[in-house]
Amino acid sequence: MLLTGLTDDYSHDGRSILELINTSVLPNALGAHRPTALRLGQSLKQIDAPFGALDQAALKLSTLALASGHGGNDGLYDFIEGLIGSWNSRRDAIAGPIKEELEGAEFQGDPIDESQSAQVIARANALVFEAEFWSFIF
């Protein structure tokens, strides 16, 4: 959609793969902030993609929780499932603003807010770090 210049009235799931697109063909709002848009997209992938870092850590820990053998009566199971639930809530709170920022730049011509983007990227990075930390611990 981005490369055709067409727009639609629905929210997109995902992002344009800016790594493969020449800056000269990007809308001005996106091209002017390409490095930040790239970081936003990469952060989104790490927290929202099926095989991103967050899902990899959640899969590892969820498997451990299930293997603990006690279901809902096991403290380890409860801890891990609570941790993953927290990650999912935080992921949703972070992914939404990233998608809105990218979609606004890609299709509405809205310039990327560098300050807001830096904050949301830092939150995404912190979430991935936490997930990888717990994955390493267990």
What does this protein structure show overall?
The chain has 138 residues and is mainly α. It is 67% helix and 0% strand. Helix 2 packs parallel to helix 5 (114-137). The model has no long low-confidence stretch (mean pLDDT 87).
Q: Multimeric state of these chains? A: single chain
- The termini sit apart by 42 Å
Total count of domains:
1
Mean pLDDT: 87
Spans of at least 5 consecutive residues whose pLDDT stays below 50 are none
Q: Note the overall shape.
A: elongated
Count of beta strands: 0
Count of helix runs: 5
Secondary-structure element pattern, one letter each: HHHHH
What percentage of amino acids are in beta strands?
under 5%
For the largest beta-sheet, the strand count, sense and barrel status come to: none
Radius of gyration (CA) equals 18 Å
| Global structural class | mainly alpha
Helix content: 55-70%
